Amino acid sequence: MTQQTQATGTAVVIGASMAGLLATRVLSDFYDTVVIVERDALPASPEARKGVPQARHAHALLGHGQQVLEELFPGFAEQLQEQGALLGKGRMFSGGGYLARVADAPCSLYASRPFLEHAVRERVRALPNVSILEQIDVRDLAVDASRARVEGVRVRTRGDDAAERVIAANLVVDASGRGSRTPAWLAALGYPEPVEELVEVNMAYTTRIFRRRPDDLGGDLLVNIAPTPNLTRASAMLALEGDRWLVTVAGYFGDAPPTDDAGFLEFTRSLPAQEIYEMVRNAEPLTEPVTYRFRANQWRHYERLERFPDGFLVIGDAICSFTPIYGQGMTVAALESLALRDCLTQGTDRLAQRFFKRAAKVIAIPWSITVGNDRKLSPATAPRDPFNRALGWYLARFLVAARTDATLAGAFMRVGNLFDPPTALLRPSLALRVLRGGRTSAPHQPEPVAHHEQERQAAQI
Ligand SMILES: Cc1cc2nc3c(=O)[nH]c(=O)nc-3n(C[C@H](O)[C@H](O)[C@H](O)COP(=O)(O)OP(=O)(O)OC[C@H]3O[C@@H](n4cnc5c(N)ncnc54)[C@H](O)[C@@H]3O)c2cc1C
Questions:
Q1: What is the model's pTM?
Q2: Which protein residues are within 6 Å of ligand 1, measured from CB?
Q3: 88-111+198-294 in CATH: which number?
Q4: Any idea where the domains of the chain sit in the sequence?
C-alpha cells in the first residue's frame, strides 16, 4: 500500500457560513492552522447579514444535521437551549393531511438561522488554531507556475483601495455558496468546468415574524405544509428564540406571495391547513415582510471532472443547493464535513477527487427527494412512465395511511430528516401496512381547521 501524505500547514476556507464553519471544525483536527476568509463583517450577536440573505427565512435543522452538529460540537443542543432555542415537536402536513404524531420520535431544535449560525461560529472561533478574517473578499485562486496546485487565495480588504495580496495555504476550501466563482476560476486556469445540473422551480418566498405565546398551537413548535400538484404552495411556521413565530410562505413557478398585509394573509388562507392563517390573522407582527427568489435546484458535478488542481476543493451550496422548503442545505453541509473528515483521515493525495465522490453520494439522496418531488409538481415535468406512476400511487397511499399510523409516519419522517433513503419506505413490513390502509396506532393530529375539500379529494386519488 502506498503511503499517503498527511495534512499539514494552513488550510484557508472561503466563507464563514454553515458549510465553511463546519468544514473548518473538521480541518482544525488535521491542519496546524485554519483561516476563514469572509467578505461580510460578522455580527457579534445573532443577526442576519448581507452574505447570507436566506437567513431571514425559515431554516429547519433536520434530525441528521442536528446529530452531526452534536458530534462536532459536544453539548451543542443543550448549549442552544440554554441560550434560548426551543426543543420540541411539530406538525407535518403532507399529501393532504397531517402525519400521525410519533411519540418516540426525537425532538427538534427550533431557532432562527442567525441564532444557529452564531452559535456554530462562536464554537468554531473558540478553537485554538482557527482564525476568522472578516470583510475580506476572495478574488481569485493563487496557483503554482504549472497551475497544477492551488497555493492560496488572492484577496482584497473591502472598502480598501490596496492591491490584492495572497494568503498562502496548503489547502483552499471554497465554501462561498451558490454564487461560487470556482467554475470561472477553473476555466481561467485552463481546467474544465463542472457540468451544472439545473432543475427549475422559479420559487418566491415571503417571510414575516410574529409574537408567539407559549400556549400557541398547544405547545407545538412547527407547522409545515408541503406542496402538492393541486396547490404548488408551501409554508412553514416555526417557533424562534425570544417568543416569536417565523412564517415563511412560498409559491412555485412564479407564484410570488404578496408582501402587503392583506395579500400575505390571503396567501396563508389559501393553504390546505389553516393554523398558519389563524396565527397570521391574530398575532402581532414584529417585522415587515421580506422576500427571496430561488430559481433552480443546482448541482455542479465536480465528481465527474477528470482534471482538478491539487490543494483545492469545494463544499456546501457551492456544490449543490436544493429547493429550500425541504430544509436540507445545512444538513448536507454537515454530512459533507464528515465525508471530508473521512477523506483527510486517509491523507491528502487526490483529496479533491476522493472528497467529490463522497460528497456526490451524500448529495444523491436529498437531491432525489427534492428534485423527485419538484418534478411531480408540474404537469410539464411529472414522470409518466408506469414505474413512476406506481411509485406516486404508493406514496399517496402511504401518506394517507400515515395520518393514523405512527409507524408509517415515523418512517416518512426518518426519510425527511435524511436518516434513511426514500427506498426505506418500500420495506415489505411498511408496504403491508400501507396496503391495509394503515393501522390506527397513534392519536390523530388535530384535524386542520377548514381543511380544503379539494386537497382532501386529491389525496384520496
Ligand atoms: C430561502 C432559503 C431557505 C433555506 N432554508 C433552509 C432550511 O430550512 N434548512 C437548511 O438546512 N437549509 C436551508 N437553506 C439552505 C442553507 O441556507 C444553506 O444550505 C447553508 O447556508 C449552507 O450554505 P453555504 O455555507 O454553503 O453557503 P452560504 O450560506 O451561501 O454562505 C456563503 C458564505 O460565503 C461568503 N462569501 C461568498 N463569496 C465570498 C468571497 N468571494 N470571499 C469571501 N467570502 C465570500 C458569504 O458572505 C457567506 O458568508 C435555505 C436556503 C434558502 C435560500
A1: 0.95
A2: 14-20, 37-40, 51-52, 54, 57-60, 137-138, 175-178, 205, 292, 294, 316-318, 324, 327-331, 333
A3: 3.30.9.90
A4: 10-54+64-80+113-196+300-370, 88-111+198-294, 386-460
